[in-house]
Amino acid sequence: DTGVSQDPRHKITKRGQNVTFRCDPISEHNRLYWYRQTLGQGPEFLTYFQNEAQLEKSRLLSDRFSAERPKGSFSTLEIQRTEQGDSAMYLCASSQDRASGANVLTFGAGSRLTVL
Amino acid sequence: KNQVEQSPQSLIILEGKNCTLQCNYTVSPFSNLRWYKQDTGRGPVSLTIMTFSENTKSNGRYTATLDADTKQSSLHITASQLSDSASYICVVSYNAGNNRKLIWGLGTSLAVNP
User: Fold this and answer.
1) Is the model's pLDDT at A39 over the cut of 60?
2) Which of B15, B50, B68, B114 is 20 to 30 A away from residue A27, measured at CA?
3) How far apart are CA A69 and CA A29, in angstroms?
């Protein structure tokens, strides 16, 4: 296992198009997170899954955004009708839930989206 | 309001020098504090994670301290290397009902020059 993989690494699209990002977490991790990060800012939480269940969604996740983790393994993040404000780095992270709460998130390299 | 503030916003040092980054938080109820290193264009990588009872934790040339009373943490980098150039982000976890949530700082951008 080589860590968290994200695909594609870069995506350039025109406003109004749909885009989909894929994340493959570390295989033994049961939690998967999506974050968005713009230049000079820290990551902003979007949503997370425990196994296949989507347990929390941020207010940032408008109705144009949808995330799935159908079999509790890989996840997809789809953005419909993209807007220029969606341009950002989309980071995926995974972790193994621990009762102590000190679960360490392992991040992927991110998928950079540019909306023209 | 739960907040994490980091200082300085940016820092430039010469290779081989030491530096200390600061993190102040007003997060409650506190669960743990993490420091991440993020290279430009990459995802964050965990350096340390500290719980309430831990005052100091080291990871190679990185040493993190935590004062839970004053709600302050620092990350000390010893004998800096060019590869230490990155953004260092402080993240505080807190308990919210049955969930644990993370508050991310904006990071300190460190540039190590030869």
Assistant:
1) yes
2) B50
3) 13
User: Any idea which residue has 């190679």 for tokens?
Assistant: B60
Q: Are the beta carbons of A33 and A95 closer than 8 angstroms?
A: yes
Q: Which pLDDT value is given to residue B15? A: 96
The alpha carbon of residue B42 is apart from the nearest alpha carbon of chain A, in Å, by 5
Which chain A residues contact residue B57 at CB under 8 A? none
Flag if B51 and A112 touch (Cβ within 8 Å). Answer: no
For residue A100, the model assigns a pLDDT of: 56
Residue B86 structure tokens: 């990155």
- Inform me whether the pLDDT recorded for A101 exceeds 60: no
CB contact under 8 A, A42 and B34: no
Query: Quick one: average pLDDT of A97-116?
Result: 83
For residue A15, give Cα distances in angstroms to A18, A61, A110, B42.
9, 18, 21, 25
